[in-house]
Amino acid sequence: MKHLVLLLFILFNSSLLLAQGTTPDSLGTVRGFCIAAPTPAEHARFLTFIEKELAPRGVNTLVLRVDYNYQFKSHPELRDPSALSPQQVKQMVQLCKKYGIELIPQINLLGHQSWANTTHNLLRVYPQFDETPHVTMPEKYEWPNADGLYCKSYCPLHPEVHGVVFSMVDEIMDAFEAKSFHAGMDEVFYIGDDKCPRCGGRDKAELFAGEITRIRNHLAQKGRRLWIWGDRLLDAKATGLGMWEASMNNTHRAVDMIPKDVVICDWHYNRAEPTAAYFTMKGFDVITCPWNKPAVATAQYEAFKDFRATANPTLAPRYRGLMQTVWSGAGNFMDIYYNTKPVTDPNQKGPIDSFVQLFQTMNSSK
User: What are the residue boundaries of the structural domains of the chain, listed by start?
Assistant: First the structure.
């Protein structure tokens, strides 16, 4: 009888612990914020923003889209004309450590090597890395266009491209004292182009998976972890998500070809799509990323809470949390947030309202 009572006691407490383990806070929820790194002129104001706005709201993860906004020593030819100094980065690192915020730098790899009619630094300095050199940049950009040009990509099979980009990645990771790196890799429309002498005719999913794996393996050599946006790993046709939030060029099959320790940042801006559950069942850690609609951000957080409360102990910890995204410069965001700049378009307030609403909702659920 004593053994039966003891067994029932153990089972009851184990069930209780499992139930407690599925609450958002007990599993270490990611409470993230993603924005472009500030320019040198915006740096001091951004430090105040971290201290006065992010830290009090309980933000524990800050992804900064750095790209070429750093005084790289390994490749000074790729620096922006005005770029953050090592000393300025160190100040951000120290401030984030003070408030327990994990700081993660991002450099867009593979895709997003241009925007509108502007070629970004990597392909401007090293045009030989261009996946589609036959596609010329227009004087005036329009979408759609005959070339299918959204953003340029570098060729993932060019024998010299990784020597350049990995030296930048290593330098920025050391500067930010970071344990994780965000490689972007969203909205890759140019990959495996038929005219590329290296990629033409190859499987686009294998090319995409190969590039993810190569970046992941490079980071893993120093115990660092890769984060990417998740849209290219979703099937646009099967899901009805369309060409922006998912892939129309068959890269989605790469989801079964890449290492499971890659963190997927799953962005959806118009609806609380259930794709985070899909990624967890594929074995990945996933973070849902809202942008400019407060109601959607709230719905995404509710979906996250429901998943954590109902999923089994294997799946629940893989759904790691939410990260508010901002797709403007840090200065512009702060201007509108602090009402120091006239709002010419009501949509400009969307990301701010979403940020405020998301963290208000998350904090009220603690």
Answer: 28-364
Read off the pLDDT of each residue in 214-240 and give the average, rounded to a whole number: 98
Choice between 7 and 308, residue whose per-residue pLDDT is larger: 308
- Cα–Cα distance between 147 and 10 in angstroms, integer? 65
Residue 337 has φ and ψ, to the nearest 5°, of -60, -45
Residue 201 and residue 79: Cα distance in Å, rounded? 34
Beta-bridge mates of residue 70: 84
Structure tokens at 105: 């730098």
Q: Are 280 and 313 in contact (CB under 8 A)?
A: no
Distances (CA, A) of 123 to 88, 127, 152, 296: 27, 5, 9, 36
The 10s digit of each residue's pLDDT in 16-42 is 333 344 455 657 899 999 999 999 999
Q: Which residues share a beta bridge with 265?
A: 229, 287
Contact 245, 278 (CB under 8 A): no
What is the pTM for the complete model shown? 0.93
Rounded Cα distance between 246 and 250, Å, is 10
User: 28-364 maps to which CATH number?
Assistant: 3.20.20.80
Q: Would you state the structure tokens that stand for residue 98, as one six-digit string?
A: 């003070």
DSSP 139: S
Which of the 8 DSSP states describes residue 53? I
| Sign of torsion over alpha carbons 198, 200, 203, 209 | positive
